[in-house]
Amino acid sequence: MKLRGIGYVVALAMSLTACQSKQSASRTGSGGTGPGQAASATENTPPMILTGSIPLEGVKGRFDHFASGKGKVFVSGLGNNTVEVMDIFQGTRVHEITGVPNPQGVAFSPEANKLFVASEKGKVYIYDGDSFKLITTVDFDGGADNLRYDAGNKRIYVACGDDEKNSAIAAVDAMTNKRLDEVYKLGAEPESFQLEKSGPNIYVNLPEPKQIAVINRNTKEISRWNLTVGQNFPMALDEADHRLFVASREPATLSVFDTSNGHLVTSLPSVQDSDDLYYSAEHKRIYMPGGEGFIYVFQQHDPDHYSLLGKVPTALGARTAGYFGRQGKGFDRFYLAIPASSSGSAEVKIYTVQD
Fold this sequence. Notes:
The chain has 355 residues and is mainly beta. The protein has a single domain (6-353), classed as YVTN repeat-like/Quinoprotein amine dehydrogenase (Methylamine Dehydrogenase, Chain H), CATH 2.130.10. 4% of the residues lie in helices and 50% in strands. It contains 1 helix and 29 strands. It has a 5-stranded antiparallel beta sheet with strand order 1-26-25-24-23, with no helix packed on it. The longest helix is centred in the first third of the chain and has 15 residues, at 6-20.
């Protein structure tokens, strides 16, 4: 994920501080279209509640991406050159992987029992899933960012490159650690992307040209949907209902697309400085954390109608999150990385999703 200019950062910090001072008066809201949109969350029934925290003493700088696997949650400390490993059930940090320059995407393959870590400096690092010892690395020109695991094909898909020539979605065989010939050239640096599980498509955010690229893995064809919003970084997919969710920063918007034709279904105002986006098929909800200091929670009433269910107050700059659905009884949890600041050390806050 690329940072903006320093002038923008200063202006954003000033505006977010003003927003944060009004949190107590603006914890719920509504927007969008459709039936039942007035049913916002109340103070007594928030969509998620803070139930724990995992201290990450000594971790400096910003975070980038989460992953989970084998009872662990992983988060890349991009500014700290580390990957933090946390035990879901103990609620503690159990390991720290060092020596990865600017780690970004992380993905776990349970079939291979390996952790894959993308580096902005041009490699994917592959670790043993038990000892977390380095097995090997795979090179990617122009850097590697987001990662996705395709369990059906046992492949790790990599968003890589930083210019028109090398930007692509590429693939690594999770079992052999070898880079495959499967490469989809995009002509612009990719950000978040989502894989269909029952179909051939890969949906890719391309912020620079304000597009979504749609890759058909069967035909190798790539189509493009043009956007009217900018800075489209996070993405989530509701494959069953043929809906793609995209968060943008200019303006701060949640956009919903019909994956069968690329048409915009609806859009809603959203949290400022979004960097992650998750869809819960169980709850029919979209979770969007933002550096503004809130997690916006949207309710899906049906595939065409959505409303803002609530705004969960968090912390300024907390925009990196992980949500992996219900992991067991009492383990429907949302993880939010809080960067270190002058007021405290880094931590991962744990929220329990409410029915």
